[in-house]
Design brief:
The chain is an alpha+beta fold. Among the domains are: about 40-75, Single Sheet (N-terminal domain of TfIIb), CATH 2.20.25.30; about 75-110. The chain is about 40% helix and about 10% strand.
Length: about 110
Amino acid sequence: MKTVMVKMKKVGPTRGLGPRYGSSVRKRYIKVMAEMKKPHKCPQCGFPRVKRESVGVWKCRKCGFKYTGGAYTPVTKLGVIAKRSAKGLPTEEAVKAEEKQATEEEEETA
Ligand SMILES: [Zn+2]
């Protein structure tokens, strides 16, 4: 006899009462960290030699082109968050706001 039971029904990463930040945020963080360590393409010479010099600053090791972008990747959705956080909104708050927005959109279509 099989006693394997599904204990919890997954409704959605942001649904229900739980920790303030769902696993989706952590998953995204892991993904971002992986992205950050990858070489990025230079917008000037096209070589994937762009490395993060400091938070939001990217430099190409091929042609020396330096530019600002996202805190973790040159240009991403998180770059938008970085810009927002620069305006005074903490990154976590921005992520939370995005999560909330996504949930609201989800609920509207449901
Ligand atoms: Zn370059």
